[in-house]
Amino acid sequence: MENTALLKDKFHRLIDEIDSEDLLRQFYEALSATASDNEGALWNDLSPSQQKSILEAYNESEETTQRLSHEAVVKKYQQWRTS
Q: How confident is the model at residue 64 (pLDDT cuts 50, 70, 90)?
């Protein structure tokens, strides 16, 4: 695996070779967004009520008595299938 300094050097050279301002902007925005992402940031942005609803839905999804088989769903919605 490459060390960090070598990887940074390769990345700098790659950036230097790009002439498209649009492409450079896309790289910049993607890296900026990734660098600012914190693990759990989306969850932490939710209100306690929203978090509770998601946890309740997850717990309900774990209930095997509430699950339908693939075949049952296909049969139930057969009228909307085009194939």
A: confident
Rounded CA-CA distance 56/33 in Å is 30
Q: How is residue 3 written in tokens? A: 């060390």
Same domain, 30 and 49: no
The answer to whether residues 54 and 30 belong to one domain is no
Q: Please report which helix (H) or strand (E) contains residue 12, including its range.
A: helix 4-17
- Supply the range of the domain harboring residue 30: 4-36
How open is the CA angle 57-59-62, to the nearest 5 degrees? 110
Q: What is the pLDDT of residue 42?
A: 78
For residues 31 and 47, membership in a common domain is answered with: no
What pLDDT sits at residue 83?
60
